[in-house]
Design goal:
By secondary structure, the chain is of the alpha+beta class. Helix content is 39%, strand content 24%. The chain has three domains: 13-125, Beta-Lactamase (2-Layer Sandwich), CATH 3.30.450; 130-286, Beta-Lactamase; 299-447, Alpha-Beta Plaits, CATH 3.30.70.270. A hairpin with a 5-residue loop joins β3 and β4. α5 packs parallel to α9 (258-288). It is elongated, with a radius of gyration of 34 Å. It starts with 12 loop residues before the first helix and ends with a strand.
Length: 449
């Protein structure tokens, strides 16, 4: 119960209390005109109360969001007079410096109150959590991993964390380390620091001051105005191919406050989801370009790779390979035996092409090889010779005993740059027809020189 005998607040306390609100409290009429404003208006928007009073609120909102603001005002005005609370709504607005900011808006219908006769609006300054939403939108829109993680790190510059952050992403073989975003002015690898502790020992590495950092890192941190740093491991892909660490630099010394810890934990969870989503998407992309039977590149991947080389101005050689007598395997032993034979023959093919060559299964018993770079006829013929020799070796499938299959090869070589990919394959196909007509088990070359 309220104590009726309690003394009234001193004069001016209500005004000071309103001015201390960690946000903006405003009163709008039904048309969205600001009749009263208090709180941290200047700090949040860069505008004084006098600049805002009597103006329409929508003039401070980006044009594309004005319709949304009008709809929200109409909805607020239509809510019941008592308890008509609406929010929170993420509302972008324009700061006086022209930059786009974000506020969290709540509204309360008080049009029926004779003393207020308007809509009470509470605007809270943008926070880390507001920007987390943008990260999720970016991920679902198919954004790149580096962009999504950079956006997530940038979100931590806002309340409650207010730190300079980046993700350190290391390849599983340790050959490459990336920083997203780069933040060249902020200390990090290749300097030694808490990120190394995370990699070596696991778990977070917290430094409420700089005293235990390596000398070079400590000097760089002081020069950049930092007083504390923390590094946190991100739960990564199960195969461990990427080791990811979140590094947060603070301008004030001391332990990370609890509300900042909670936001950082949320960021780590989101980072893990971003990485997992990217991994799943990459797996789907790989599967779409991979022959499911042999594991080689498929026809689509072959044409993408060949087209890319053509667009780059290369003059790639193309080998078109067709198995000799493979139909007999399917007819005699069935398709399961045929599939088993194709897997073995694919491995043999992979063993005789160069590491820089692109080997693909085009379909059925047809394969193709792209030889990039400045390749000579002697080199291409050497590959074709290895192909025919290796595939001619006896092959055992199930209980059927050894059998010989073999292969014929058609080669398109030294055709002018920018020759279309399908034209190159058609030329190689014509040479393959000649090899087949010659009895198979050999190769024929078609040159454009």
């Amino acid at each position: 119960m309220t104590d009726a005998s309690a003394p009234a607040p001193p004069s001016g306390v209500h005004e000071r209390l309103l001015g201390s609100i960690p946000g903006v409290l405003a009163l709008l009429d039904a048309d969205g005109i600001v009749r009263f404003a208090s709180g941290q208006l200047e700090e949040i928007s860069g505008r004084s109360v006098d600049e805002v009073l009597g103006t329409r609120l929508d003039q401070f909102v980006v044009e594309s969001d004005r319709g949304l603001l009008e709809a929200l005002i109409r909805q607020s005005a239509s809510l019941p007079g008592k308890g008509g609370l609406l929010g929170p709504v993420r509302m972008p607005f324009i700061h006086s410096d022209g930059s786009k900011r974000i506020a969290e808006a709540w509204s309360l219908n008080r049009i029926g109150d004779p003393e207020l006769n308007g809509i009470v609006v509470l605007l809270l300054p943008e926070s880390t959590y507001d920007h987390f939403d943008q990260v999720l939108v970016s991920v679902m829109a198919g954004g790149r991993l580096d962009d999504s993680l950079s956006e997530l790190a940038n979100a931590l510059a806002f309340r409650p964390v207010q730190a300079e952050c980046y993700f350190v992403v290391a390849a599983g073989d340790g050959r490459r380390i990336d920083r997203w975003p780069e933040r060249e002015a902020v200390p990090g690898p290749p300097l030694a620091g808490p990120w190394g502790d995370v990699w070596e020992r696991g778990g977070a590495s917290l430094h409420p001051d700089l005293s235990h950092l390596p000398t070079d890192t400590r000097v760089a941190a002081k020069a950049a105005g930092f007083a504390a740093v923390s590094a946190y491991p991100v739960a990564s892909r199960v195969d461990g191919s990427r080791a990811t660490t979140l590094v947060a630099w603070f301008h004030e010394a001391g332990p990370v406050p609890l509300n900042s810890q909670i936001a950082l934990e949320r960021a780590l969870t989101l980072a893990s989801l971003v990485i997992s989503h990217d991994s799943s998407s990459q797996t789907l992309r790989d599967e779409a370009l991979r022959d499911p039977l042999t594991g080689l590149s498929n026809r689509r991947r072959f044409f993408e790779a060949l087209g890319a080389r053509v667009e780059a101005g290369d003059c790639p050689a193309v080998l078109y390979i067709d198995l000799d007598g493979f139909k007999d395997v399917n007819d005699r032993l069935g398709h399961l035996a045929g599939d088993s034979a194709l897997r073995v023959l694919s491995r043999r093919l992979a063993s005789v092409v160069r590491p820089t060559d692109e080997l693909a299964r085009l379909g059925g018993d047809e394969f193709a090889v792209i030889c990039g770079g400045e390749v000579t006829e002697q080199q291409v013929v050497a590959i074709a010779s290895r192909v025919t020799e290796r595939l001619a070796e006896p092959l055992t499938v199930g209980d059927a005993g050894p059998m010989s299959i073999g292969a014929s090869v058609g080669i398109a070589l030294a055709y002018p740059s920018r020759t279309p990919a399908d034209t190159l394959l058609a030329i190689a196909d014509g040479a393959l027809y000649e090899a087949k007509a010659a009895g198979g088990g050999t190769w024929k070359v078609s040159t454009g020189g």
